[in-house]
Amino acid sequence: MRYDNAVFECSFGTAAQLKESDMPEIAFSGRSNVGKSSLLNKLMGRKSLARVSSMPGKTVTINFFKLDECRFVDLPGYGYAKVSNAEKLRWSELMEHYFSSGRDIRLVVQLVDMRHAPSKQDIEMIEYMKENNIPFVVALTKCDKLNKTERMNMLEEICGILTNYGEISVVPFSATRGDGTEELRNLIEKYLR
Length: 193
Prior knowledge:
CATH superfamily: P-loop containing nucleotide triphosphate hydrolases
C-alpha cells in the first residue's frame, strides 16, 4: 500500500457534519499530547501532513486523510484538563457518533504513552472498543524516551495491564527513530484485507 500519497481531505467539529463512510477507515485514538499527529506523519512518510503541536488539546476535530485504499482518521485527543466542560461534551458526542454511525472502521490504533501506565481514559477507550467489538491495536508512543531497561520494564507492566482485555497486539513506537512503523503498517494492511 502507498502511504506517501496520502492527502488531507477534511475536518469535522460536530457529529452533524460527519459525512457517510464510503471507504474503509483506520482510526487513531489517544490522549492529548500522546503523539497522534507525529505517528500519522511517520506512517504516511510525511513531515507535516498532520499538524503537530506542542500544546495538548489542539486536535478538536476529526481529521480525515485519504489514501488509495482507505482513510486515516485522526480522532480528537481526550483527557486534557484545560478545556471547558462544554468542549469535553462536544468531543465526547463527536467520538460517540463517529463510532456508532455504521462506518467501515477496520481498525483503531490506540496510542498510549509508553513512559506511563495507561490512564483511566485509555482503559475506558480500550473497554469501549472491546464491548463494541471494534478491532484495535495499541501503539506505545515515545518509546525512544526510555532506555533499554526502562523500555522492557514498561512494556512488561503495560502488557500485564492489557492482559485483562484479551489478546492485544502491542507495538512500541517512536516517531523520531521510526521504531514500530513497519509493524504498524503491516497490521493496518492485515485489517484492510
